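QA checklist item 7 of 12: single-chain prediction sanity check.
[x] sequence parsed
[x] length recorded as 353
[x] structure emitted
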Amino acid sequence: MPSVPLPNLDYLVARLHGRRGQFAEADKLDALCRLRNVADFVRAVSPRTRFTTVVDFQHGLINEMVQELADLGAQLTGAGAALMAWMRVRCQIENLKVMARAFATGKSFDVARPYLVPLPDDLSLDLEVLAAADDVESFAMAAPAGLLRDGLVAFAPAYEVEPSTVVLEAALDHTYFRELLKRTQALRGAARNDALIIAKQEIDTFHLMLVARGCFHYGVRGDSLEMFHVSGGRISLDRFRQMADADRLSDAVALVSGLVLDTWSGVGGRYASGTAECNTAMLESLAWNRYYRLARQAFRRNHMGLGAVVAFAAIRRIEVANLITLSEGIRTHMPADAIRKRLIPRNTEAIHV
């Protein structure tokens, strides 16, 4: 069946190329790192807006990205529009994770509230009902109706066995990534191939961090995490099991280094278990470096197609993450070189891109 041309796709992608030129990347990031007060930083990044606090600025960035995804979806049809709509749900899930952590640790809603990002009405949560939940079933039923609620309900028995915030967060991520893969696979042609490369990197970053944090930080048994594996990424279920059964974090990473990370020195190298660099924060940064690189390549390769729209959304996500990190670094008077080392792509000798 022949594909139906997307309305005004050439015009849309041309606009995205122009918008991409305004992103805070490379030398622009270096210049922003040298700013020494938040007011100057906000003026440089968002001169037409006024924010009273750093938190307001960060929330504004996230909402601007959410609105951009909505605008992109409105200019697409079919599978492209459906994918953009689902990518917006990622921000809703982050708020739901905040509430899940409060539920699992018994913290009050007042403690969780500052970490919530105000989102558009269609991504809002019933916070009062979530906060009042006294068991995992009632918490799951308080989640938004549809896939997210269904996912939490399905994994509620697992939480009863392993009552950890890791389980609830993994349940939400598992649900999100299964649907992300489904909607990405519904694309056609070159756009499908490029979008799948980006999606699979994010899925396998989830697999890597689930083992790193779940097994090696929180001590959750590997067999308790197998159910959260998302079929369709580059890390197979068998490989995931091997990672979860590894004796050391560095051994687990060595099993998948070429699938999730661009460079890894391996067991006995500078990232061997026990060294300062072998930690979850470094692993996550290296994985997101690869995500960013793959998105940039896809943007260039599919420069006038739907794949460029998906890649643009991925690159924009990294820009927002960097700007939030920058705002925190400047607010806390962190030295410029220290801030730069926390940004994506992370500056480290181990990265070759």
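[x] summary fact logged: The radius of gyration is 20 Å.
[ ] second reviewer sign-off
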